[in-house]
Sequence to fold (151 residues):
Amino acid sequence: MSKDMINWQLLIPLVVTSIVAISGWIVGHRLNAERDLQNKRVELRIKYLLEAYRNLEASVETEVSRENLKILESAISDVQLLGSPDQVDKILAWSSQFTKAGTQKDVNLQDVLEDLRSSLRKDLGLPKIDKKIRHVKFTLASDVKEKPAPE
Fold:
């Protein structure tokens, strides 16, 4: 064999192996990047819908003030942006009722909250809960007005 001659029996398998390895790396990298992006989307969706759920739940059976009105508006916007079509329909129906009623106490938020809870638990891989949401509100002793003593 002369020095100018290429050993094709060694070169072809080496080139084919290199192409397969590089292609595998590119495909693997692309799939990992897509998976990471999808995971980030799900993470952000859960974060914002969980915050919306908490803010909506905290507003149940409370007077709406200027302070918590912005929080409610933000929660409604988050559900409209990131919620399922059914959740968007429910939050729009609730906000429409709320606007017409003029007060929170005359409007039922239970359907919206149960739908959000159900989808968030599903997204988090938690078991389904069929029980109604119970809203617990505590009052600090310092906030309770003392009754005057009987005379």
Summary: The mean pLDDT is 86. The two ends are 123 Å apart (CA to CA). Helices lie at 8-59, 66-82, 85-101, 110-123.
